[in-house]
Amino acid sequence: MGDPREPPGGTPEGGSNDDEFRSVVFDESFVRAARIQELSAQERLAGALGRATRPRGWGWLSVPRQAIVLLLVVAMAFAAAVYFGISSPRGETAPPSGTQLTVSLTPLAPPGAVTAAADRADPFAGLPAGYADGQAGFGMPAATATAHFTGSQVQRALDSVQQYLVVSELTPATLTANQTAQVRALITAGELSQYDDSTNSPRDDQHHAATGWMVRFDPGRIALATDTVRTTGSVHVGELNADTLEVTTDHTLVYALRPAGTTSDPSVTLYAVRRAVRIDVDRADLDTGRLRVVDAAVQAGPSSCSAGQSDYLQPVLATTAGVRASVPPAVTPADHGRPAWQSCGVLGPITG
């Protein structure tokens, strides 16, 4: 009797029972796992006649694992890009980190009685030479290239600075009408929260005085005798670093003021404000036309030393009888109950 392991017809000529497939054991579990499923009659009639069987399970299991991982990474990256594109605020760059505006305010008390301008029709007639009307006195420099910025980029920065100076120091709506939107439109996105806090709830803490961002007077008490403001000063441009221009402005502004409302007293008071402001403009600010106000040092008089200056500047107005403001109080260095930055000075002559 033949060997049961041999094929019925015997071993093929030239063949061997010890071929490479002999080690493969086709047990029952292997056969069950490898079974195929025939197509139904309906599937065959539908046009699948060229294929007698269909594979069981999902076809994507045969895709290489590396390809599946790559597809997942691409899908996650796309989803992240869509999310951040939707959630990012439109029209504003991400708020830059770092500095915030620091303000110092020094009221200047008059050395004697406050007297009115001699000529109400031309209140600035007594000013010395060197003052000009409005932005003509800003002393804007020519735009020249720096180490990391082109001349046109410097010009764009200077244009933004000049616009800020106009709306924060010369515009009547800002000076005596409580308008703050024009200044806000020029402030970089990272400072808007501080700016809004300063205008909505001003306080003398060196960071949240509305009068650090702009010159303004209480419209219930102060009016402009003329919309003209006399100015003198200078503007300088440098680089803070390779990505930021640093612009420093130092101006003296003289305002002609009178009491608000109807009054029988026609007196006009000249009020002087010196503002030394440091402004940073980075590359993102150049694209948006905005700027960062970093430091503002303000001296203003004639003012009362005892009046708060964080919300409005507080001029002492002249009357026909003359008004004497309070003299600066003595400063005691050992008094730690008074903030060190709060000080008052004596107003000297307004010179060019």
From TrEMBL:
Stretch list, region Disordered: 1-21
Superkingdom per UniProt: Bacteria
TM regions (residue ranges): 67-86
Keywords, sorted A to Z: Membrane, Transmembrane, Transmembrane helix
Full protein name: Uncharacterized protein
